[in-house]
Amino acid sequence: MISIIWGSQFIREKHTIEAVDGIGGSIEPKGLITVASGETQAFTIYPDQGYIINQVIVDGKNIHSDLKRSGTSFRIQRFNFENVSDSHTIMVSFVPVMHIITATATANGSIAPSGDIFVNDGDAI
């Protein structure tokens, strides 16, 4: 007698995550990333010198309320899609770090420019 055993091969469904960054930083990995169902895909966000993370948009929803804030800047560095079961998008935007210089003169003096002056991080005035 001859026995034949049929093997089963399970192929997990694949999904695509599109990662897009803007001027002032980057996201890694970037582009179209293929992820098998059930897997976790991690992303790391890197603001350039003089920039902070402005928004992180996941599947069209701004998740800024889920991020930890430090003053006026977002301090997120990683985002994970866990137990992936569908395709997703992640987009990140950045804004320059802005400093405010308040210039005032005392009696018998003057200063120009005066008042609040907004200066991007690293710029000269």
How would you characterize the overall build of this protein?
The chain has 125 residues and is mainly beta. The protein has a domain of 83 residues. It has no helices and 12 strands. The strands form 4 sheets. Strands 3-1-10-5-6 form a 5-stranded mixed beta sheet, with no helix packed on it. A 3-stranded antiparallel beta sheet has the order 2-4-9, with no helix packed on it. The protein has a two-stranded antiparallel sheet with strand order 7-8. It is rod-shaped and about 95 Å long.
Features:
125 residues, mainly beta, rod-shaped, three-stranded antiparallel β-sheet
Topology:
Layout: E1 14-20, E2 25-28, E3 31-36, E4 41-47, E5 51-58, E6 61-62, E7 69-70, E8 73-74, E9 78-81, E10 88-96, E11 98-103, E12 115-120
Parallel strand pairs: 1-10
Antiparallel strand pairs: 1-3, 2-4, 4-9, 5-6, 5-10, 7-8, 11-12
Quick structural summary:
The chain is built from no helices and twelve strands. It is mostly beta strands. The chain has a domain at 14-96.
Hey, roughly how much beta strand do the residues contain?
Answer: over 45%
The major pleated sheet works out as:
5 strands, mixed
Shape, principal axes of CA atoms: rod-shaped
How many DSSP helices? Answer: 0
**Helical percentage:** under 10%
Q: What separation lies between the terminal Cα atoms?
A: 91 Å
Report mean pLDDT, rounded to a whole number: 84
The ordered H/E elements are: EEEEEEEEEEEE
Identify the strand order in the major beta sheet: 3-1-10-5-6
Quaternary class = single chain
Backbone structural class: mainly beta
Low-confidence stretches: none
Number of strands: 12
Radius of gyration: 24 Å
